Sequence to fold (205 residues):
Amino acid sequence: MSTSINKSVYYTIEKPAVAEFKDRGSKFIAYAYPIISVESFKKHLADLKKENPKAAHHCFAYRLGIDGNNFRINDDGEPAGTAGKPILGQLDSKELTNTAVIVIRYFGGTLLGVPGLINAYKMATMLALQLTPILQKQVEVNYLVHCDYTNMNEVHNIIKQYNCTTIKQEQQLFCSITVGIPINRQEEVLYKLRDIKGVELSILK
Fold:
């Protein structure tokens, strides 16, 4: 995998996409999803299995995070290396992360052999990824920001100014905001936020 992903930006897909590839009667339907966690991937997989109970295989690959270590492939009964690996190969060729592709196969009665299977899973994945825009996103570090209502506007202005992501906001006695701060602007943003009276910051692991 290219190391260019380990910088201040990463690439993912904008929205789900579906594509179909046929070979000698077998249908390979690829579903591409942007994901943020293993849990979100598992939900997509469970939903597809429920919707396609008669499919012979539900093969997949996903990659999460930016260190290159959080990925998984599954051949789901196909010969080893013929499904999950070519699916992951397509994700990596586009340097995608926080992305999953599940390819379901309806068997057409003719064995495709190892080269045929590798090609089918690769092509189905490639077609699905062509149907959704690729986004460049900033690598962010998540922080919890506690502040008083009187400081909320000031905090929001800084979040907006530095293109931070508001992940969650809760309002009780005080305001609590989970915010993703771009890694290459982290020092500036933290300095500005700490400059506001009564603001407390804690990094989220």
In short: The CA atoms of residues 44 and 201 lie 34 Å apart.
